[in-house]
Amino acid sequence: MRVTLALSAIRVTVGRMPRSPSPNDPQWGPARTYRARPGLNKGPDLGTGVPLDDIDENDLVDADGHRLSSGGYREPVSYSRESYEDYDDYDEPTYQPAYGQPEHGQGYGDYPDDYDEPSQPSTYGRARSRPLPKRRPKTGRRRRPSLRLLVLLLIVIVIGYPVALGLTAMNKLHRVDALPGSPDTPGRNYLVVGSDSRSGTDLEAVSSTRTDTIMLLHVPRFGPTVMMSIPRDSDVDIPGHGTNKINAAYAIGGPKLLTETVEESVGVHIDGYVETGLAGFGAIVDAEGGITICPTFAMKDDFSGLDVQPGCQPADGRIALAYARARHSDPRGDLGRVARQREVLAQIAKQAASPRVLLNPFSAFPLARAGGNALTVDEQMGMIQLSFFLYGMQKSASGNGLSLTVPIASTDRMTSHGQVVDWDKDQSRIVFNALRDSSTEAIRPIAEKQAAEAGG
In principle, which of 139, 140, 288, 301 could form an S-S bond with 306, CB 3.0–4.6 Å? Predict the structure, then answer.
């Protein structure tokens, strides 16, 4: 009989692996067991040939419904936890220790009087148990929020801060219809205009003011960035209005006619238009905390109020504006003035890109507001186009940027419109072809020659 029961236990053990333990399963001694409950010892045969009526209420059964003998062997009894769920009086067992007697108030009563705990667990019919999964150390959970916070902070600094600066400037910009829509050319070209409006941002006076400053900023595909001044008295063809000084185009037709005149004279497409009243120079310089100017000779100009000595020196907004406007104390006249205007613009761009200003929000945001409020741009100018413009200005201020004036043949020819400036056809053709092809290295010898002649 015992041989038959042993074979049956082996067959059941091999044919059906015990289910995984649950923390709520009671565990008595070496094999987790349930005690048979009164009232459940009835019902049909559930599949192993032993009806539930044969189970005594003091019998011990393991988690898989197998009756345990005193020797630790399993007897095939179809009495499982799943079978309980069909009965209304089933109570979910509570967790019991792996070995030893249940703690007070747990389980379904005490050990039976005739139960002797085996001194050594039997290897046959022993219910398998698995250790509960280990919890992850708390230190691992603490690191993750810190890492996410660090990543979020980096995103705010790298992306959010520049975007916030750009939006601050964009919200202050003034708009004007300035682009005629000519065919595109390689590279990016920006027409930079400085009017003599004393307000700096007075749009109502645009049509009646003149342009003291006309510059072409070219950001090339290949080669150095170029900042080229166009003298305001240059004798050119104004579309629909014959030959006249180039600044007359602004007085006749405003920014749009001036842009069209420059496009036809130089042969390049203008991608963006940027204008400021000369008073805007001073507001931007003050917002940056000042710039450095480097006059090559002493200058005292009663008209602009300038009084400086030669050599590099700090300048606030008032001095920088006077330095950019002075021409009567310069022996080169208007040609010397446009060179100083390029110098001031380059210093403004260089200072704005410096870590001292750019990384300090108490300096950067006032500068963005002052710069945006001082500028008038074309209607198509967006944040990306404005970023290209600022990048080009910063590159033109670097050591590799080229700064020059349209090559000049004469400055004293008289016409019905007064004294005009004539361009050097051969030299200007070299410059204009390099700008059209956006390959600007060919301009370097001309720019260096002009710098040497000016003493700088």
Answer: 301
